[in-house]
Amino acid sequence: MRIEYDRDTCIGMFQCVSEWDAFEQDKDAGKAVLADSEEREDGLFVREVPEDAELDAKFAARACPVDAIAVYDDDGEQLIP
After folding, report:
1. pTM, to two decimals
2. Closest-CA residue to 5 (of 23, 30, 19, 26)
3. pLDDT tens digits for range 28-52
4. Which domains, ranges and CATH numbers included, belong to the chain?
């Protein structure tokens, strides 16, 4: 499972932070940070989701009020949103 995070879309509500500890608050920027992620050329931050954190990652994506987080299965099919 893979998660993609669009930091530009983030509005800093930090609901993802309360759902999964891979998201951290950057209060100076007013945005969340996805730990251990890599920034792609398109500006999205991407990382693999450990099997034991899949449910938390899905909750983080669902909690985002502006759909800045997307979750994909291993076949590349978008699960959330």
Report:
1. 0.93
2. 23
3. 999 999 999 999 999 999 999 999 9
4. 2-80 (3.30.70.20)
